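Question: what's this shape?

___
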Amino acid sequence: MLESLGLAPGTESVYRVMLANPSWGVTQIAGHLGIDVEQVRTSLDKLAELALLRPSWDEPGVLRPVSPQVGLATLLAKAEADVAERQRQVEQTRAAIHAIAAEHDSNREREGVIYLQGLDQVRGRLEELAESVTVEVCSFTPTAAQRPDTHRAGKSANQRALERGVTIRGIYQDSFRNDPDTLAYVRWLTELGGQTRSAPTLPMMMVIVDRQIALLPLDPANSGRGAVELRATGVVMAVYTLFEQIWSVATPFGESQRVDDNGLTPQEIQLIQILSEGATDEAAGRRLGLSLRTVRRMMAQIMERLEAQSRFQAGVAAAQRNWIRPLH
């Protein structure tokens, strides 16, 4: 109970016995507590060190316990002073960290834009933002931006943010619904209060922090090159509006993909649209995050539903059934 004041349980027991029986000697205390005489002597040394024992005025050479109202109160006051000093040091350290961070950001910033070169700088910055976020983090995770260790790298930071009450919303590409690692991470995040959905295609990797900061890739086709951090209010809100639009039609993980009146999933609609624009199967696969084999299997199923013998016939039939959105 009094360990925070420097009293181990055994020493506290000796002190309590002495308060109740101030005339007892070492042997009597040891017998009462059922411990060795040496243990009592060690406790007495500690009590003297803490000024909880003092020489008797009546019996020279004998030590008497100091009353708890005086002795323990003195120790408590010292402990409180130590805590206050420690808190002062913590505040000084926090101020120093903020100053160093501000200097670091000013060194990276050029004309209101911070350039993050390579994955190390991007991940380092994401870790910083995860610790400073107060309201919400929104993100796009297209297939091209995903690496096997991405989830592990951000897991602890995301957990701390969620425990602080931060809202985390993430949109993945539909192709991730077949990825065991992503599904396991999504389940973990959802259990902690995070929200995840998926969409057939995503324009690029993107992270929005507190609707004030947006991280976008330097090269959407190669997120490994790095990112650019933007703070201009108009730009950030435009990116956030894009996120909200896709979020509103994306499918929550745990739910089956929605189908339209024609029985098509969002992924199938996107595939038909992409191919109708003249893209190859390989290009469609890259945009959808699907293998070439999966693209061809999906297209074969669509052709069967359209009762088409060729891609051309399928295109005509899809247009007649309004499966293809007109280009504006």
User: Anything to note?
Assistant: The longest strand covers residues 167-173. Residues 1-110 form a domain with the Arc Repressor Mutant, subunit A fold (CATH 1.10.10.10).
